[in-house]
Amino acid sequence: MELADIIIKLVLVVIIFLISLLIAMYSTYAERKVAAFFQDRIGPNRAGPWGILQPLADGGKMFLKEEIIPTNASSFLFIAGPSLAIMTACIGSAVIPWGQKLTFGSTVIDLQVADINVGILYIFGVVSLGVYGVMIGGWASNNKYSLLGAIRAASQNISYEISMGLSIIALLLVTGTLSLREIAEQQHGFWANGWFTWNVFKQPLGFLLFIVCAFAETNRTPFDLPECETELVGGYHTEYSSMKLGFYLFAEYINMFISSAVMATLYFGGYNFPFMHHLGLSENLVTILGVVALFIKIFAFIFFFMWVRWTIPRFRYDQLMDLGWKVLIPLAIANIIITGVWITFIRG
Amino acid sequence: MEPLSNKRKVIESKPLNFWERAYLPAILQGLSITMKHFFKKPVTISYPEEKREFSENFRGMHSLKRDENGRERCTACGLCALSCPAEAITMTAAERQPGEENLYREEKYAAVYEINMLRCIFCGLCEEACPKEAIYLDGDIVPADYLRKDFIYGKDKLVEAPLNQ
Questions:
Q1: Chain A to chain B Cβ contacts (< 8 Å)
Q2: Does the CB of A311 have a partner CB in chain B at under 8 Å?
């Protein structure tokens, strides 16, 4: 790898990192605005025009709040918890292909930080690390509500990771690769060989299972039991204040962004959009439009996350476990069998 | 037995059918309901800039009225203070001096007239008791303040602005 390539990659890493943070910041604003619209309200509108400076005001408030570490808390782990949560949230974006290649003369810029051939496994590894931040923080707080929240988070994430993995296996049977770049390339165009190329049309049940599990993995309503206010005060972050609390909340929004990006890449064609090579545009312009298309898909998913939050009430804990183990896992296994039969006997 | 009202509704509890148990149609229905609200006009009134219309019989801050010549109507009879269930009103009467006929309508007037807005319950009984039509609760909402003593409103805040000369 040449020096120029390394610099390009570093710049790309920084840009993706900043975009993740910016989107997480404005997700908090969007969450409040969307919530307000769903409840026939206006939402934050005092800081700047239409309240667009609200995230800065919230962030400033978070930084100025008093930093409290409870006396009996394990202070090292207490700080390690939110750090781990935000770190694992941020590194997930490394394998997502944000667009095709940009070409400037002889330099080719690949809009993906790392095209590793086990991209999906990497994502899964990072996502399952994410629960450690919650667990460590909850345990180190030395508070029963935090501990209960952490236990819930751990068991919920482990239960839903299984059905998430199983729903992905069916997708991998169809695609035959673990690399996110290749999966995105396979969904090129919109219509080929008499069927849609996007995986959501090939794996509708798999997508349904995946999105339900994604809600559980990101601790969003209806599966937000780890931080359920009505039962557990604040769940695992009861004892947290100041920017350490901010990191937990931020990590949640970054996770939402990353899982939206993964869903868009795996099932909704990633950066592909219909008729992308029939418009007669230059390659670089098509690539940039592709990035825009990917972000539109991501924002649509983020909006869907918020939409569901204001529609469905929270599950009870036993219902959550029932759904995970007795419904989603059998459905995922059935989906694998159906896909396998279809690939073996029909697709040939 | 005859039902008391005809509003009673017998609810049958049938077992759920497959689609009801599948839970997804219900979720889609719920999503469509919330989406309808997303496009509804917000009902919020942005308070300091816009104000909600008061009803016609809204009782707000008191004002001590003047007559058509701009003289204070209050004669310090004390009926308002007597009628006040919250004992919020106190006053000190004084005799009108010669030459003050353009200030006070009656021969006796209130030199001090104080209402404790923290005690007042805005019932409007003072308004009803007043024989001189001197006090009305036709003002705005009583504004917030920091100190209890600042909620005792004297004549400076209660008496209507003088007529334009």
A1: 35
A2: yes
